[in-house]
Design a protein that fits this description.
By secondary structure, this protein is an alpha+beta fold. Strands 4-3-2-1-7-6-5 form a seven-stranded antiparallel β-sheet, sandwiched between helices.
Length: about 150
């Protein structure tokens, strides 16, 4: 897995795309380039929405990335090998159930938010994992409140 370190934090109630982009200038070059690339990729998914939480996370436990949480959706900018970034948009209204868990195994702890959608033959599950524990509870409560 890539090592993602979120050095930009959302201070106050929310941030906008422009505010997060302006903060990039304060970062070291390598992180700044990756951050700007991730922001440009998710810009079309944000549609001038307010960003309430920004965290590192993984999509289904595979590849790390940046998690942007708005009041209607979560967007994970997944950092793939060779610097490629792939956005995953999870609209809360598309899912019928949301749940969370904290998994502990082999001395490691992993957080998990799971979205479920009923399908014709089987249900579809999407998971966001590895959200830092100090932010996990607040992020889940926010998503749960806006999901209902």
């Amino acid at each position: 897995m890539n090592n993602i370190n979120v050095e930009i934090t959302v201070v106050g109630e929310y941030s906008t795309y422009e505010q997060l982009y302006a903060e990039a200038e304060k970062l070291p070059k390598t992180i700044r380039l990756q951050w700007i690339k991730a922001l440009k990729i998710v810009k079309k998914n944000l549609n001038n929405e307010k960003i309430y939480f920004l965290s590192s996370a993984a999509f289904s436990g595979t590849t790390m990335g940046y998690l942007f949480v708005t009041d209607t959706k979560s967007i994970l900018a997944e950092i793939r090998p060779f610097g490629k970034i792939r956005p995953h948009e999870i609209k809360y209204s598309d899912y019928s159930e949301i749940d969370h868990d904290i998994l502990k195994a082999l001395g490691m702890t992993a957080s998990l938010i799971e979205f479920k959608k009923s399908g014709f033959l089987r249900s579809k599950k999407i998971r966001i994992t590895h959200i830092p524990l100090n932010e996990f509870e607040n992020i889940f409560k926010f998503i749960k409140r806006h999901y209902s």
